[in-house]
Each structure stands twice: as structure tokens, then as C-alpha cells.
Amino acid sequence: MKLCIGLCDENPLHLRMIAQEIRRLGRIREIETEIYTWTCGSQLLQEAESSGIQLYLLEIKMPDMSGIEVAKQLNQLQPSAQIIFISDSLEPVCDIYETEHLYFILKSQLARRLPDALDRALMKLGKAQKGVSFMLHSRRQVTPIPLHSIVCIEKELRKIIITTTHERYEMYAKLQDALASLPPNDFVQCHRSYIVAFRHIEQICGNEILLSNGQRLPIGRTFMQPLKEALMQRQFSS
């Protein structure tokens, strides 16, 4: 699965920071990302149409041409492309409603907001992993949670808490029933109270797991060896 992304920001440092975060999220979602960058909107418009870009992240305030003006033209040139606005401030935010866009992110909230924005873009573009969801049952409603977004699942009394890349959910269920409904190649139990997604494991630190969201989970003594074997098997099969 491949996603072509265009970034436009007059600040090269911000471009590198955003590109780095997108690549990190792409690895977690097992999506290959091809990223193009521009420091001015007019140059983007000259080159973008031939690049096959599907998702744009545009800084609103740029000297030669605002991100809003760029978005208006992209809406005409590439109506199926998704647009996310980014900015240092809320000052020009009202004007974005003159365009077809998906999301607005303050740069100070990039790490927190970008995962949700990217997931929405993938859904719009039809690139989310279809038919691969965990079904959340609550109050007579059933909500599908994309498996790639699940970081870990925790048992708390008679509930389980599902931590995703951008939200937490609760439901009444047994941890073992949750484990049985998850693909064994993607999830593993690391403790009597925790299930973890392989793709979100960053590091094993002694008897703890460091996750992609910075959370640390304990590894139960009886789960240590099976966990190591499962990680080794994934490494050799990838």
C-alpha cells in the first residue's frame, strides 16, 4: 500500500519535522509513504498535478500564496485529493471553509492530531485496511475499530480498555475473548492484563515493552519467552 503526500511550508525545518512524523505513522500503519515537499505554493501548483499526489498538508500562512489559495486551485485541479491545513495559529482558520478540506492541525498539536487526520484521509482515499476491524460493543451500538490503530488492550475489572493511536475505548468483555477475536500474527498477550499490537512495539526494555505512543507495559514472567519467540518469528518472516 502506497500513499503519495505533498507538504508545503515556507519553513524547511517544519517540513522535515512533518515528513518525519508522517513516515513514522506510515510505518505503524504498514503504508509506504512517498513525500514531496515545497516551500512556496506557486511551485507546488506547477508540479503537483504530474506527481500523482493524493494527500496535501498545507501551511496556511505563506508569503507568495496562502495555503487557502493553493487549496482552492487544488480543489479544481485534483478534486479527489485530500487536504489538511496546518498553521502556527488559529488566526486565519475561518477562511479554510472556503475550500474542500479534511482537517486543520495546529503545529503545536501535530503529534496528537496527525494520526487521526491521516486515518481519515486513508478512509476517504479507500486505502484503509478493509474488513480488518475489532468490533466494539457498547450501549446497543457496534463500532468497528481499525486493527492497525489499536496500540494495546488492557483488562480493568470486568472491562477492557482499548488504546488506539488517537483515542481510548471501553467495553465490558473478557481479555481472553478479545484476544481470540484478534489476528494472532498482529497481536500478542504480554501480561495477564495486557494485549499488545506487534506493529506498535518500539523496544523491549528488561521486563517492559516500550510502545509507539510512549506507553510502557509490563511483561509477565510466563509471557516473556512466548513474546520473544513471536517477535523472532515475525522478524524472520518479514
SSE order and pairing:
Layout: E1 2-8, H1 12-28, E2 32-38, H2 41-47, E3 55-59, H3 67-77, E4 82-87, E5 103-106, H4 110-125, E6 133-138, E7 141-146, E8 150-156, E9 159-164, E10 168-172, H5 175-180, E11 187-191, E12 194-197, E13 201-205, E14 208-211, E15 216-218, H6 221-237
Parallel strand pairs: 1-2, 1-3, 3-4, 4-5
Antiparallel strand pairs: 6-7, 8-9, 8-12, 9-10, 11-12, 13-14, 14-15
Helix pairs in contact: 1-4, 2-3
General description of the model:
The mean pLDDT is 88. With 238 residues, the chain is of the alpha/beta class. It folds into 2 domains: 124 residues, Response regulator (Rossmann fold, 3-Layer(aba) Sandwich); 105 residues, OB fold (Dihydrolipoamide Acetyltransferase, E2P) (Beta Barrel), CATH 2.40.50.1020. It is elongated, with a radius of gyration of 20 Å. Helices cover 31% and strands 34% of the residues. The strands form 4 sheets. Strands 2-1-3-4-5 form a 5-stranded parallel sheet, with helices on both faces. A 5-stranded antiparallel sheet has the order 10-9-8-12-11. Strands 13-14-15 form a 3-stranded antiparallel sheet, with no helix packed on it.
Mean pLDDT: 88
First CA to last CA: what distance? 15 Å
Question: What value does the Rg take, in angstroms?
Answer: 20 Å
For the biggest sheet, the summary is:
5 strands, parallel
H/E order of the elements? EHEHEHEEHEEEEEHEEEEEH
Number of distinct beta strands: 15
- For the record, the count of structural domains works out to 2
Helical fraction: 25-40%
Q: CATH topology of the largest domain, which one?
A: Rossmann fold
Q: Report the structural category.
A: alpha/beta
- Beta-sheet strand percentage? 25-35%
How many H/I helices? 6
Unreliable segments of 5+ consecutive residues: none
The CATH architecture of the largest domain is 3-Layer(aba) Sandwich
Morphology: elongated
According to CATH, the homologous superfamily of the largest domain is Response regulator
CATH class category name of the largest domain:
Alpha Beta
Instruction: Please list the strands of the largest sheet in the order they lie side by side.
Output: 2-1-3-4-5
Protein name: Response regulator
Keywords: Activator, Cytoplasm, Two-component regulatory system
GO molecular function: DNA binding; phosphorelay response regulator activity
Pfam family, one: LytTR
